[in-house]
Amino acid sequence: MASTSASRSTGGVTSRIRTAASTLYSDNQSLIGEIRKALNMMKDVGVDLERDNQFQKVKELENAAVELLATHEQCTHFSSAVLSVRDRYQPGEESTNFKKLFDDETAKLKANSSSVPENNPMIRQFREAVWKVHHAGQPMPGEEQDDIVMTSTQCNLLNVTCPLSGKPVTELAEPVRSVECKHIYDEKAITIFLRSNARARCPVAGCPKMLQAGKVVRDPLLLIEIDELRTMSKQSATTSVIEDCTEFDEDELD
What we know:
Layout: H1 2-51, H2 55-88, H3 98-112, H4 121-135, H5 145-153, E1 175-178, E2 184-186, H6 187-195, E3 199-201, E4 210-212, E5 216-217, H7 220-253
Antiparallel strand pairs: 1-2, 1-5, 3-4
Helix pairs in contact: 1-2, 1-4, 1-7, 2-3, 2-4
């Protein structure tokens, strides 16, 4: 009886720890989302300053964006650390030093990360948006035209279409994302998919990750990233129309 009681107590502690970790992860993802919004706002401000030829202020704003992006990276590492600790935690006889667990996991993630804030796509998009103010259609110094196209259309989402419903993620009313593989699905479609198999392989072709209902979540950051994709798609469509019109005018002149 005592053994059963202890087992229930341990299970209750584990469940509470995992619930608390999930809440912490969600809150931190919301913070990351706010940082992303701030970076997009800084890009818009940078464009306005460039139009006013306030080049020194543009440079200062870019430097501030790089610093903010470093914070973004730290928050991203922390989110990953929270999930790792949540999934690996097992109560023992001695009290757990969660701060040390988080610090060790975060340090490991940083050591394995090769990203440099100055080369991050969001900073590249900032520089490109500013460059276009006075140099529309021209490649940035040290870059070819293909590099600019790649940067303009670069997206943080791993898939832009739900593998189950076939709908573009920009049209999903309730998008959700796998914590394991980061792929995106229509919530209703993935719920039905998981009902037939509580632990199934991700339906995205070639993805080896297994899914669990509790690890397919409404990620606060996801909505912001999807909105960014919508914006990029609109900008890309506008650029294509302008290029088509330019070609038409040149044909007329010939």
